[in-house]
Amino acid sequence: MTPQRINELLTVYRDGLLNDTLPFWIKHCVDREYGGFMFALDRDGTVIDTDKGIWQQGRFTWLLSTLYNTVEPRAEWLELAKHGIDFIRKHGFDADGRMFFQVTREGRPVRKRRYIFSETFATIALAAYSKATGDKQAQQEALDLFKLIIRYLTTPGLIPPKFNPETRAGKALAIPMILIVTAQILREAVDDPTLCNEWINRCIAEIERDFMKPEFKAVLETVGPNGEFIDHFDGRMMCPGHAIEAAWFTLHEAKLRNNDPHLLKIGTTILDWMWTWGWDQEYGGIIYYRDAKGLPVQEYWHDMKFWWPQNEAIIATLLAYQMTGDEKYAQWHQQIHDWAYTYFPDPEYGEWYGYLHRDGRISVPLKGNMWKGPFHLPRMQWYCWKLLEEMAV
Amino acid sequence: MTPQRINELLTVYRDGLLNDTLPFWIKHCVDREYGGFMFALDRDGTVIDTDKGIWQQGRFTWLLSTLYNTVEPRAEWLELAKHGIDFIRKHGFDADGRMFFQVTREGRPVRKRRYIFSETFATIALAAYSKATGDKQAQQEALDLFKLIIRYLTTPGLIPPKFNPETRAGKALAIPMILIVTAQILREAVDDPTLCNEWINRCIAEIERDFMKPEFKAVLETVGPNGEFIDHFDGRMMCPGHAIEAAWFTLHEAKLRNNDPHLLKIGTTILDWMWTWGWDQEYGGIIYYRDAKGLPVQEYWHDMKFWWPQNEAIIATLLAYQMTGDEKYAQWHQQIHDWAYTYFPDPEYGEWYGYLHRDGRISVPLKGNMWKGPFHLPRMQWYCWKLLEEMAV
Question: Where is the chain membrane-spanning (chains A, B) (predicted)?
Answer without folding.
Answer: none
